[in-house]
Structures are given as structure tokens and as C-alpha cells.
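Field notebook, page 392. I keep forgetting to write these up properly, so this time I am using the form the group agreed on. The chain and the ligand, adenosine monophosphate, are recorded exactly as supplied. Prediction of the bound pose follows.
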Amino acid sequence: MKVMSINAGSSTLKFSLFNMDDESVIASGNFERIGMEGSFYTIKYRGEKVEQDVTLENHLDAINILLERLVSLSIISSLDEIKAIGHRIVNGGSLYQESVLITDKVIEDLILLKDYAPLHNPAHVLGIKACKEALPEVPMVAVFDTAFHQTMDPVNYLYPVPYSWYQEYGVRKYGAHGTSHRYIAKTISDILGKKDLKIISCHLGSGASVCAIKDGKCVDTSMGFTPLAGVMMGTRSGDIDPSIIPFVMEKEGKNASEIIDDLNHHSGLLGVSRTSNDMRDIVAGMNEGNENCTLAAKKFDRTVVNYIASYYVLLGGCDVLCFTAGIGENSLETRMRIVELLRPLGFELDIEANNCRGELKKISKGKKKPLIYVVPTNEELMIARDTKRLVR
Ligand code: AMP
């Protein structure tokens, strides 16, 4: 059974086509700069890579070209081979606790939920409508980044603000990266052959979040009402004192959305290091003795460790600590610094085993608990798995 997973952003569309009989990737790629000058696409298949400039006025153009290319490159022999499409959805609010088959009602809900993910949800709707128009007979599934976090207790998802903000406007923690954290929990549970596990999952990429998972269910997570909250990230601040916002607005004569833009795009590793939002550059700067890079790396570690330690207490211990995403999978130095700070809780790294990038591996010493793993995330596969299950 062939299943396509789609991640539609405001000007991008990423896809992976899976053979779900063995979960192998048949083809994957991106359409970039949709609706802009200089749009192009990349398709990878059977070790080949096709890259081409092309006019992409909208998401439907991208889908139509993708479908045409899949057949003309002989990746599939006919469009009938695509049995289902799964769409990544950033925010399903409190409406969606799990993945669902897409109906007109789901599309209407996504439009209503746009305030919770103004950059993402409208783009997802464009992607869904384009697929619906191009392949009207093919069933589609929505897989929400927020769904995994819907098992949080109100004590963990409520903010200590006027209760009416929650009741009237839905102000609460929704979290993000849920599909990734769910994939990590499932992978670890499969490896250890156990469901009753206390897992702390660290998705450390350009966006970063930590998630406390018990018996396969999310107990708490670091991202909040939006993906701006929680640990420090590439360009996002993570948690700060909200009083800073009106203070700097007055100092710099900026409005609220300009400050939020600073917190989303000019903060985090970039803000503190004044050099780069990329952990590779930060580590290189640190090795050269750059003080701001050193401070940025230490601040990053500190915010991640604070969440891990707090979730250790929340879960009543930890069986497995996991690292995933760009930094978590690849930055040996970051993993080493973080685990060193966690020593008082009994975490201990196997320095030799930690010398790995982008591979599934246990990196803690011997059989001693807590175990520590690197687990390459695979949100696209999780989307395809849910899609296959629901269309069946
Ligand atoms: P992601 O958002 O998961 O794609 O992660 C992207 C981030 O991963 C980049 O901005 C880098 O900070 C980080 N990254 C990728 N490769 C490495 C590496 N080899 N060492 C350190 N950081 C890396």
C-alpha cells in the first residue's frame, strides 16, 4: 500500500511517498518558494535527485507537478497506486485528541483554529484543498502535532492567569512536536519491549521541546500556547518574563507584533551568540573561545536541563532519556554537556557510544538506569502509519 505524507507550509510543500508494506521511502522532496519568484522543486528517488526551477503560483501547482513527475519519472506507474494521503497539521486545538479522516467539517475546524497557528494552519488547508482537487477519490488523514499532548492534566496545561482567558479564548498549553515525541516513545517501547516506561524526550532542532511521557502518554511538555514557549531554541527565546514585552516596547517604540517577531526570529542561540542560530557554528565559536557563543550554548543547556530535571520529579523518576532532531541527533558536544549537568540525577554517558550522529543508539553506560538513547525522529513515517491505520 502506497501512502503519501504531506507537510504544507505557507510557501513550501514537503512530501514523502512510502511503501507501507515495509515502511520504505519510495520518494521524497520539497517544493519551495510557492507563490514567489524563484520557485523550484527537489525530488529524491532510488538514489537519484531531480532539482528544477518551475513556476509555482499556488499549492495546487505544486501538487499537480508532483503527481505528474511521480508518473513521468516512473516512480509509480499510475496515480491509482497512491491509496491515501496524510497531512501534518500544527495545531488541532482542544478539538482533536488524535489523527482523523479529513472531512469538510475537519477543514472548517482548521480554518476556525487559525488563530492558534496563524502561519501554519491556513497553509495546511491550502495543501489539503490542492490534494482534494487533484485526487478527489483518495482518502486523506489529518495528523496533529498537538494531539499527543491532549492527555495532559489541567494542572499541567493551564496557565495561572484569569480562568476566563481559558474559558473564553482557549488560552492554555497545547504543545508541539507531538508527532515526533510519539514516534520516540513508540520506538523506545518497541526496542525495550515494554509499555510502562517513564520517558523524557528531548526534540532539539531549530525548534526545541522536551516532553514527559508515562506509559506512552504525554504528561507535560515544554512548548505552550504557541511553539515560542519552553526551552531556548535557534531563534526563539523560550520562556521569558512577560513584563519584558511592554518594557522593551516602550524603550524601542515597537508594537507587540514587532516584539513577538524579535522573540521568534532574533532570540535564542542567535540572540545570545550574536553570531548564528546553528548549533554547529555555536560549538565552533565556543572552541575558538568566543564568549557569546559559549554563553549561548550554556544557556541552551541550562534551559533544557531545567525541564528534564522538573520532568524527572513529575514522572517520579526516568527510565529513558532520549535525544532527537538536528541538535539532539548530531551534536555530540551538546549531549555531553547536558548529560554532565544531569549527573546529580544519576545520568551517565558512555563517551564512546556518544560518538555517533543520526543513528538509533544507546549512549548511556552499561545497563544502568536511566538509559539514554539517540533516536532519529521520523514524523513523516508516523503520519503515514496513522494514515494507513485510519483509511483501513
Ligand atoms: P532540525 O530543525 O531538526 O532540522 O535541526 C536543525 C538544527 O540542527 C540546525 O540548525 C543545527 O543547529 C543542528 N544541527 C544539525 N547538524 C548538526 C551537527 N552536526 N552538529 C550540531 N548541530 C547540528
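OBSERVATIONS:
- Residues 205-206, 234, 278-280, 325-327, 330-331 surround adenosine monophosphate (CB under 6 Å).
- The mean pLDDT is 96.
FOLLOW-UP: compare against the apo run.
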